[in-house]
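dumping this here so i dont lose it again. seq + smiles for coenzyme A
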Amino acid sequence: MLRRMTLVELDAADAPLLEALARLSHAAAATHAPRWLPTLDDAREEVADATRPGRVARVLLGADARPLAWGSIFHVYGHVWEVHPLLVDPAHHRRGYGARVLAELEARAAARGAGVLIVGTSDETGATSLSGRDLYADPVAAMASMTFEPSHAVGFWLRMGYALVGVTPDAEGPGRPSINLAKRPPRA
Ligand SMILES: CC(C)(COP(=O)(O)OP(=O)(O)OC[C@H]1O[C@@H](n2cnc3c(N)ncnc32)[C@H](O)[C@@H]1OP(=O)(O)O)[C@@H](O)C(=O)NCCC(=O)NCCS
């Protein structure tokens, strides 16, 4: 029988899957945010965090049952739910896998009453015009005129319907901000 891709819940008891996700995450973060998951152990911790109570996590498995992408969403406060992380195997970027996992996470959060979905994407690599400058001087003007390289994830979030709602200066070190985006959840 021909197997297809499947979107499954992250199973905390599936040790080989957790390890495969850690390796995927380490590789996926390497280019976007080298300081985020610098070691495989950091990536293992990121995956383990997503198995904690309260976290909603989904994994997209390929036809061979190997993970292609995964992500998690969780309640932060009030009506706010945060997407973190969302990671796609670098060998499979731009095939719709990130969007597919994200849509499922958004639907799950909406079903649980989310009023707003948020995400933060850092600029550690100078890939946006918000990097390497003092954003305290006029953060609103800096955001309004933001430009970014096609490689940076902020383009993905904008394409997914997220709006630029803020910037956290120096979040990842001097001149390395985090870009804050938000979206109204889909109707549950
Ligand atoms: C960002 C990431 C999750 C996107 O996943 P992906 O599977 O490559 O993206 P998709 O193929 O689902 O893209 C969906 C749409 O967004 C667009 N898109 C994807 N990445 C984009 C980018 N960097 N800039 C602009 N548009 C982008 C796609 O072209 C596609 O557009 P379409 O609907 O018109 O065809 C993935 O590149 C990744 O894992 N990056 C490294 C880790 C990371 O940055 N995670 C997010 C942390 S904030």
